[in-house]
Design a protein that fits this description.
129 residues, mainly alpha
Length: 129
């Protein structure tokens, strides 16, 4: 989310961003099953290997959804709680200073109020090729 700014120079920023994205956006289960079958049968690889090598390939083929607030809130809260006390190995600074933590609380409030989740019955995705 654009309103959450963490230092890109921090050693944990990339890991946090990935964990945050994975908590916020869930893979559509039907798409994931279909892509997994193709990867295993025709590409002779697995979902996890392809995701590590070329996530763009995966996300061009799999819809991602933002679940309802009651499901989303605890999933997004966990990365904040996990990464909050951790410090950069090089600088010894926390990933979340006072201002970042204030932003994180605003994100959690927006999620709790339902301002982040997909709306039921309104498709945000379209076929790409």
């Amino acid at each position: 989310m654009d309103i959450l700014k963490v230092s890109r120079k921090h050693g944990l920023s990339k890991g946090f961003s990935r964990t945050f994205d994975d908590a916020l956006f869930l893979d559509d289960e039907i798409d994931k099953r279909l892509v997994t079958a193709v990867l295993e049968e025709k590409k002779e690889t697995t979902w996890d290997k392809k995701l590590a090598e070329d996530p763009d390939w995966i996300f061009k083929r799999v819809k991602r959804v933002v679940p309802p607030p009651k499901d989303l809130y605890p999933m997004v809260k966990k990365p904040f709680e996990t990464y909050r006390p951790l410090r950069c190995a090089r600088t010894r600074r926390p990933l979340f200073d006072f201002e970042n933590w204030k932003q994180a609380k605003n994100v959690l409030t927006a999620i709790h109020l339902g301002h982040v989740s997909d709306l039921p019955g309104i498709p945000f995705y379209f076929v790409r090729g």
